Amino acid sequence: MVKGYIHSHESFGTVDGPGIRYVVFTQGCPLRCKYCHNCDTWKREDSKSVETPEETFLEICRYKNYIKKGGVTVTGGDPLTQPEYVTELLKLCKKEGIHTAIDTSGFLFNDKTKEAIDYADLILLDIKSIDPAQYKELTGVELAPTLEFAEYLKKIGKPMWVRHVVVPGITDNDELLGKLADYLVHFDNLEKVEVLPYHSLGEYKWQKMGMDYPLKGVEQLSAERWENAKNIFKSRGLTVR
Ligand code: SF4
User: Fold this and answer.
1) Do residues 4 and 56 make contact, with C-beta atoms less than 8 angstroms apart?
2) How far is the CA of 77 from the centre of ligand 1 (A)?
3) CA-76 nearest atom, ligand 1
4) Domain spanning 4-234, CATH class
5) Mean pLDDT, to the nearest integer, of 76-103?
């Protein structure tokens, strides 16, 4: 029987895809982003509940009226660490005409994750950096699988939003932002770019888990630098949120 390792549920999410959404936070992530604000989702064995797709779906149905103009988003962690669970859950949602989205780093790209993608109306793809060395330094893994994942989404015409966190002193770099923008211009399946300002609100979770926060002392992104980053993407004709 397919089971999902779950961190938590949020019934009125407004930042993970269009409209009001039921958000399922899955447990488990292969990345170790230095600014992660969900480090408590990294290890599957720390899950708060284990549930079948049917059980999750029953819970979602309680909110069906509220998410009529939104939908369901699975995030994490990285939901594609559990592709069978995501596939079955999204299948159930699709049968009921509920809009579905997956929020992922795109690091896990294989036949099983491809099947999960088939049942998603939208992919929220987090590209942490366009520079391979910086990506590795920031996340602990290689950039190449994420770019391969993005190319696949383009090939199958899957609607995609790209998310990018702008971190002072790291990704807040005009040259790299321009490089990412230039790369994204060629994606005709790209609906928008979400340029997210770095903040350290997740730092307390690192402390709670007995870990040193790697970006200690890094200030949150200023409004001015955020505007600058957004303008770089807009200057390439991209839609920016
Ligand atoms: S991909 Fe997301 S959940 Fe995983 S480490 Fe990075 S920020 Fe955290």
Assistant:
1) yes
2) 6
3) 3
4) alpha beta
5) 97
